[in-house]
Amino acid sequence: MFIRFRTASTLDFVNLYYVVVFNTSGNGQPVLATSINSFANYSFELIFGGTSVGGAAYQVIQIVANGTSTNGGYQQISVPTQPQFVTNFNPNSNGTGNEFTFTFNRLLLSPLVTPSPGPTVSPGAPPTTSPGVSTLWDLNFFSTNLQGTPIDAISNNGVQDVSFNAMVTTTATSDQVFTKPNPPPIQVSNQSAQVMVVEVINTP
């Protein structure tokens, strides 16, 4: 899977996070910036930035519900980096400093804790996703401050937008580009946090 993430001004990997959120449960429900505290429909977060030095970095977080109760809260579990599943991370892919690209094998999003109940895996199915991960993924794309508070999202109405949902079927080839009008309908003061373009390319 290939992700392109572009902002209005130079990326700030020290003072901001750029977050790609995945719902890999297969329930088809969107992952929203307004749900960042409840983690409703969150399965994984791919987080770029927040480093204490100028160099860019990334981390993978799995979101797991505590127990079977819907009110039991959630855990954030750091997934160890697996370089063999990362094809390329270019923090300045367009040469102007406001775009990064990330190419990875979907097995990078491998649950340390398998949600229950998990999907049934057919015998002999190709290992393109991990056990506990569906082939229907919902994605969203945010910028946040270092406390994890959303600043902007790719949807036209920013972090308050509850209608946006990028859906990817991992068994099908697709290329989706989401572009905001310029100037965007909802503008944020920090242009490094203003999300303008996101592209997602999936190859089975």
Explained architecture:
By secondary structure, the chain is mainly beta. The chain has one domain. The protein is built from no helices and twelve strands. Strand 3 and strand 4 form a beta hairpin. 35% of the residues are buried. About 6% of the residues have low confidence.
Concise description?
By secondary structure, this protein is mainly beta.
Characteristic terms for this protein:
mainly beta, 204 residues, five-stranded antiparallel beta sheet, seven-stranded antiparallel beta sheet, 12 strands, globular
Classify the helix fraction into a percent range: under 10%
Radius of gyration: 16 Å
Low-confidence stretches: 116-128
Helix and strand composition category: mainly beta
* Largest sheet geometry: 7 strands, antiparallel
The domain tally reads 1
Basic shape: globular
How many angstroms does the end-to-end distance come to?
A: 9 Å
Write the layout of secondary structure elements.
Elements (H helix, E strand, L loop, with lengths): L1 E6 L9 E7 L20 E6 L8 E8 L8 E6 L6 E5 L8 E6 L31 E9 L5 E4 L12 E4 L4 E6 L15 E8 L2
Antiparallel strand pairs: 1-7, 1-12, 2-3, 2-8, 3-4, 4-5, 6-7, 8-9, 8-10, 11-12
